[in-house]
Amino acid sequence: MALLPAVLNVIGILVLTHAVYSANEHSTLLALTTAPHASLLPSSSSTTSAILRSLIPHITLPLDITLETLIAVGLICVGLVLGSPALRPIEWARWAGQLEAESAEELAKGREEGEVLGNSFAALEHRNGFLDIRRKRKEFAEWVREGRDGVVGTVN
């Protein structure tokens, strides 16, 4: 099924390239044919003539080039959606359950195929040089439960 998205993307890129080339050619030809008419506008410094002069290079594309562009973008979008990997669930509990349910064989198979499986935050969870707050809280709670014999600040 990986062939269809690739084909759609290639066709979409080729059609989009042709649409961009056609739009460029159309705008160039239209600008060349309308440029001599700019001298026919009144030369007064009124805002109306300035607006009219600024509108002369304005180019509207023909319907076929516009449709070709929209079809090309649609083909590329469909190809990208079909070629994307399966989405992971949004809820953390379901995601964690799926991580625990995956066996080592599935993880090894996924790594061979280039698919990303497993805990995507594993690199962040095992960082060296950072303070582990949960471990420190646990140590402090154990220290409080054991008692504070000989600690500075206690009243004897």
From TrEMBL:
Membrane-spanning parts: 65-87
Membrane topology listed for this record: Multi-pass membrane protein
Keyword annotations from UniProtKB, A to Z: Membrane, Signal, Transmembrane, Transmembrane helix
Any single Gene Ontology cellular-component annotation: EMC complex
Coiled coil regions, renumbered to chain: none
Location within or outside the cell: Endomembrane system
Signal sequence annotation: 1-22
Record-linked InterPro entries: EMC_subunit (IPR053279), MMgT (IPR018937)
GO BP terms in the entry: protein folding in endoplasmic reticulum
Pfam family membership, one: MMgT
Chief place of localization: membrane
Superkingdom: Eukaryota
Stored PANTHER family: ER MEMBRANE PROTEIN COMPLEX SUBUNIT 5
Family affiliation: Belongs to the membrane magnesium transporter (TC 1.A.67) family.
Name of the protein described by the UniProt record: Uncharacterized protein
